[in-house]
Write the structure tokens for this entry.
Amino acid sequence: MDKIKEFLPFLIPLVLAQFALLGYTLHHILTHDSYKRGNRKTWLIITIVLMNFVGPILYFVFGKEDA
């Protein structure tokens, strides 16, 4: 239990950043119609299943259409 308390100052901002990135990614997917690769359903599944930073980063690298 002491080890968890030791890492809390690092973990709390990391968790908040992860959920903020996930929220922004889901908002972007749901409000845009065009994607470089795939479709809305595919990117929603990838983002939610791989939500530990990997899914949102994959979307912004490979899926987000530059407007």
Summary: The mean pLDDT is 86. The radius of gyration is 15 Å. The chain has three helices and no strands. The CA atoms of residues 3 and 60 lie 34 Å apart.
